Amino acid sequence: MIDERRRHDLYTRVAETFGEQEADTLMAHLPPVGWADVATTSEVRTLGVELRAEMAELGAQLQIEMSELRSELRGEMSELRSELRGEMAELRSELRGEMAELRGEMSELRDSIQRTVIAASIASSFSTATLVLAAAALV
């Protein structure tokens, strides 16, 4: 394994033998780490295939989870819809009951007003008859 001291020694010898510019060129083409740490083209391709497979698996899992969430959401929405319909039916029934009660009260009020008007009309008629009889008695 080549360490930094050995790399420096190599640079120094190449510079002494060929010159600094050539030593710089040679060192620029050597990897900064050992050759065992440099990935080959086939290793990079293999990693690419593995990454794509992993991404496809994650995508499939994500689609499954989204489908499950969609199903749960539809179920909850259906349940809420049913609850809302039930509550609306209850309110409709209550409203109809209250309207029937109000109609009954209005009918009673109308009957009471009619009786009052009839009684007042009769009283007025008696008053008029009394006045006519009193006037006739005076004549």
Outline the structure in words.
- Helix content is 88%, strand content 0%.
- By secondary structure, it is mainly alpha-helical.
- The chain has three helices and no strands.
- It folds into two domains: 1-38, no CATH class; 39-138.
- The chain has helices spanning 4-18, 20-29, 41-138.
- The termini are far apart.
Put simply, the count of helices is: 3
The separation of the N and C termini measures 153 Å
Output the helix-strand order: HHH
Low-confidence stretches: none
What coarse outline follows from CA principal-axis ratios?
rod-shaped
**Got a strand count?**
0
User: What percent of residues are in strands?
Assistant: under 5%
Describe the secondary structure blueprint for this structure:
Elements: H1 4-18, H2 20-29, H3 41-138
Helix pairs in contact: 1-2
Give a brief rundown of this model.
This protein has three helices and no strands.
Notable traits:
single chain; 139 residues; mainly alpha; 2 domains; 3 helices; 88% helix
